[in-house]
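Query form — protein Elongation factor 4

QUESTION: What is the three-dimensional structure of this chain?
INPUT:
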Amino acid sequence: MQLTYKRNFCIIAHVDHGKSTLADRLLQITGLISDRDMVNQVLDNMDLEREKGVTIKASAVRMEYTKDGVTYELNLIDTPGHVDFSYEVSRSLVACEGAILVVDATQGIEAQTLANLYLAIESDLVIIPVLNKIDLPSSHADEVATDIGNLLGVDPDEIIRISAKLGTNVDQVLNAVITRIPPPRGDEHQPLKALIFDSHYDSYKGVVAYVRVFEGTASMQGDFHLMSTNTEVKPIEIGVFAPNMKPIQALYAGDVGYIATGLKTVKECRVGDTMTDQKNPAQTALPGYIHPKPMVFAGIYPVEGRDYDDLKDALSKLQLNDASLTYTPETSQALNFGFRCGFLGLFHMEIIQERLEREYDLDIVLTAPTVEYKVILRGGEEVLIDSPAMLPDESTIEEIQEPWMNLSILTPTEYYGAVMELVKRRQGFFVNQDYPSPNRVQLNFEIPLSELIVDFFDELKSKTRGYASMDYSFKEYRASNLVKLEMLIGGEPVDALASIVHRDAAYHKGQRLVTKLKELIPRQLFDVAIQASSDGRIISRATVKALRKDVLAKCYGGDVTRKRKLLEKQKKGKKRMKMIGNVEIPQEAFMAILKLEDE
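ANSWER: The structure tokens for Elongation factor 4 are given below.
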């Protein structure tokens, strides 16, 4: 098909504004899926995505649509809307020439709407604004259309108003894609240049690379070369998503599809790499992606030591499917061998944990999440640490710096005070404000990342009855008065329960954590001391009392020395048991640091 009749576009929006529902309707209108086979969220093929109602993975699909007697090839990429998956969005935008910006007529413009819009503008895409959910009684379409018009500098009457659920005016979206979005550029006779924008692992086909062909032709007869890893590839299968994988003979310039490489190792096929022809290679590679910087770190350990290799294999396959996940091996005194994993946020961490447990049937323990700190030593050397256990000796530290974020919160004006109070309590600073519409305010703050990752979003939603939305980005490292808070159980420090906290908050956090752990750690046959230590001294202590057997039950009188003899014998047994006893620490204890309520 000629380039003139091809269109590549994606759908961007805030969470729950109707991206996946709109994608469902587009698939139905173009006849790709029959009404009989239709299920909600067709492109969200993970159970997790359907359960949580969010898109986690970007997914591509090719549709055909006839307008004015001409058949067009439309390549759609559906993107996530949650802030933790913005890297998926940025990768998808590179493969497109245009974007449909979906805004909920009942909610209006939200934080992720703006964040994704700015990403699309930076990628120089044509934006088609669409107003969704106009059928709902609570929709205020005219007001929201005016806000979008002011934001984009377009006439509010030109904004397409649809109901993706009912299918109202969805055909207008397809017509706008054809008329407003330019066809892709490229020449199928030039040397092959195909950008890998995503991938997954298939047991039979090896690594399946999702590609956008910018120049040349990728055919089954070709031998390919991956430019950054210098890997040679003989394709097993080439095809398109319709919406399932459909083999074809070749992909031409402007096409979006997949190439099954047969590669068995993840490292050889990287997202952002350029695929070219071995015999007639391209001179330069396409610009790849800036690798995302993990924001949250946590240890993942197998409950059974023998599952270590299975966990390593599962993480390598997940990393292929989710390029923003990072992991390195680590050991813990309490949990033995595992991995230190980096995530883009807490929700991202939760999704990875669930995928490991469901898709790979692993029984795992996660340690409490932390952020990456910059430690400046007295000699001037800088060290980055993402685990409290890695913190050098306090006598060698000049200062500890923590990451600060730019935080943007969009909220109805009536919750202005509640949001201000929440951010202030979390040690954030107010920067400025803006009014995108008369009854909504965008508040900009600077806040430590460590305060942002722990229950901040949940608290924000509860304070604003679910109306506020947020987006954040890294700003800089700043020096803070931080100390290491250690937990000792039975006199032994448990590295997996250690955390780095502000010096002012160390005493209260240590006290609350000791109280929490006392409830969670089961009683043993001996006394278990739980202590919090900071700055080289114990700041709080509690004792889990021993389970006691009544050894005097069989004494029906007699001399008191007989009773004392039995009690002394029991005391010696307890003392010996304490020396060799092992305290089992449940998974809830490692998450207790998260659940501490702010007083």
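ADDITIONAL NOTE: The first helix runs from residue 19 to 29.
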